[in-house]
Amino acid sequence: MVQHLPALNRPATPVCSVCIANYNGEALLADCVESVLRQEGGIAVEIIVHDDASDDASVDLLRRLYPQVEVIVSDENVGFCVANNRMVEHARGTFVLLLNNDAALDLDAVSTLAAATMTQDRPGILTLPQRDWESNELVDRGCLLDPFYNPTPNMDPARSEVAMTIGACLWMPRALWQQLGGFPEWLGSIAEDLYLCCVARLDGYSVKVTRSSGYRHRQGASFGGNRASIREGLRTTFRRRYLSERNKTAVMLVCTPTAIIWPLLLTHLVLLALEGATLTVIKRDGHIWTRIYGAAIAHFFRDLGRLTKQRKVLQNSQKSTLRQYLSCFSPIPRKLALLARYGIPGIR
To answer: What stretches of 6-155 adopt beta strand conformation (E)?
Structure first.
């Protein structure tokens, strides 16, 4: 069951609907919502929060401090994809901005995104430069992809065209969201942003990052783990790793144009199995295979028929060439770079 808590004094015709998916974000929401309310530029914005059956006081906080925020309260945890689909379905803005509850916008973020959209003949997906919450250091300017669909941070200020933007800050016309079908709910959580950006690029739309403004992000706060540092290495969780490997493999099959997918997919699955077996032996933990790699590979083969049908639908409507689609891919495997810099990841 879903309960709608209406907002007070919401704009009659919002230009942008900021959609914030929340689960147990009581300690994060104030920074996030305040950053939207403080936006400069005079652009009419509505704020929608989907609470995913939190067991903290998130909803009470929103009702008490932010009556201008519309809240969708779910009595069951439905995940990131369903949460965002519900919010966009309820949104009224010409554009939607998906914003993580552990992120905060710069003061000119919305006006920068709106201005960048106006320069495009065919508006696509946009993001802002991402900075670390604590250090304020640049994390990425959108992401490229390696051959196996692992996101590779773009650090080049001269490069605006990227392969994907993470869902922590993703701007696009609401009509384009509806045309592409939004987030695929079969993914659950993780890689839904990868899927949407790849589908958009297959259909000939751009995915770009602005040259100015930005947002700060508490990396890993909203889904646990996957934060890297030289001192502590790369930290992740069993659930996150399983969903990441499972979902990236599915997106690879569904979205990669032409018959190149088959040798690429075979190589990926072999390397994935070797990676899982190696980590299992090194860490002496059989759960690494049973809960992450073996489980992800088994799920992929169980789902192969449905994924192949989905691939056929997308590839039949493809407008971009293979060269255009691969123009934002990097030949260097991202996992090798992470291993060289941070060592073997910690999994909890």
So the answer is: 16-22, 45-52, 69-74, 95-99, 103-105, 125-127, 130-132, 138-140, 143-145, 151-153
Angle of helix 261-283 relative to helix 238-255, nearest 10 degrees, comes to 170
What is the spatial distance between Cα 345 and Cα 180, in angstroms, rounded to a whole number? Answer: 35
d(CA 116, CA 124): 10
Q: Do the Cβ atoms of 104 and 128 come closer than 8 Å? A: no
Tell me the chain's radius of gyration from C-alpha atoms: 20
Q: What is the pTM of this model?
A: 0.94
Structure tokens at 21: 């998916």
The neighbouring-strand residues paired with 70 are 48
DSSP annotation of 291: I
pLDDT tens-digit series, residues 118-136 = 999 899 999 999 999 999 9
Q: What is the DSSP letter of 187?
A: G
Separation between Cα atoms, residue 243 and residue 80, nearest integer Å: 12
Domain boundaries, the chain: 2-217, 227-347
pLDDT digits (tens, 9 = 90+) for 86-128: 999 999 999 999 999 999 999 999 999 999 999 998 999 999 9
Tell whether the torsion through CA atoms of 227, 189, 86 and 320 is positive or negative.
positive
Q: Which of 58, 42, 48 is nearest to 4 (CA)?
A: 48
Q: Which CATH architecture is the domain 2-217 placed in?
A: Alpha-Beta Complex (3.90)
Q: Largest alpha-carbon pair distance within the chain?
A: 60
Percent of the chain with pLDDT over 70: 96
